[in-house]
Design brief:
Mean pLDDT of chain B: 92
Shape of chain B: globular
Number of strands of chain A: 12
Number of helices of chain A: 0
Order of helices and strands of chain B: EEEEEEEEEEE
Shape of chain A: globular
Oligomer: heterodimer
Largest sheet of chain A: 6 strands, mixed
Radius of gyration of chain A: 14 Å
């Protein structure tokens, strides 16, 4: 079974400051990792994904994440946040490679940007 | 490509009534998924289809829930005898079959409120 832990339920950050949203996962097999963003009353939009290869993954809106297999982590970072980054961020894992279709999500981190 | 479309966006119903939601996936995406997201939680997998075949159902999908995808295109999710605990955002997603490394694309969801 897979699980995802997002340790921070809420993260307030001043505008133009850097931010890191933490994600740890557990799985007995190799996984694919994803970060999705959800704006109020909206669906989920993919920020970035790790499938294989380089452990540093760049996504949309200036976000990046680093896959660390030994620490089973996939933390999301942005060097300088903007007001428009205020949203809920979800880390998710799947073992698609093994034919498992479903995504397992964390409980989310609410990012609030302070002007 | 108009994205995954879900209707209605919002539904308020009285306890005990039946409700039906519709999802139109991205054209030519043969995989379709339903997730449920309750307040303050990440999405939880309910079920998925490959074409018209329902291949996996979560234990969350009680007997009151039924999903169909009769022609392998749009899908419906019906909840019978709704309960207050069914209040949630219901998300639909789709993914193409012939691109296994492609992420799921989500719709904007249907928010159900049971009063």
């Amino acid at each position: 079974a897979q699980s995802v832990t997002q340790l921070d339920s809420q993260v307030p950050v001043f505008e133009e400051a850097p931010v890191e949203l933490r994600c740890n996962y557990s799985s007995s097999v190799s996984v694919y990792l994803f970060w999705y963003v959800q704006y109020p009353n909206q669906g989920l939009q993919l920020l970035l994904k790790y499938l294989s290869g380089s452990t540093l993954v760049k996504g949309i809106n200036g976000f990046e994440a680093e896959f660390n297999k030994s620490q089973t982590s996939f933390h999301l970072r942005k060097p300088s946040v903007h007001i428009s980054d205020t949203a809920e961020y979800f880390c998710a894992v799947s073992d698609l490679w093994f034919g498992n279709e479903k995504l397992t999500f964390g409980t989310g981190t609410r990012l609030t940007i302070i002007p | 490509d108009t994205g995954v479309s879900q209707n209605p966006r919002h539904k308020i119903t009285k306890r005990g009534q039946n409700v039906t939601f519709r999802c139109d996936p991205i054209s030519e995406h043969n995989r379709l998924y339903w997730y449920r997201q309750t307040l303050g939680q990440g999405p939880e997998f309910l079920t998925y289809f490959q074409n018209e075949a329902q291949l996996e159902k979560s234990r969350l999908l009680s007997d009151r829930f039924s999903a169909e995808r009769p022609k392998g295109s749009f899908s419906t999710l019906e909840i019978q005898r709704t309960e207050q605990g069914d209040s949630a955002m219901y998300l639909c997603a789709s993914r193409p079959r012939d691109r296994p490394n492609t992420e799921a694309f989500f719709g904007q969801g249907t928010r159900l409120t049971v009063v």
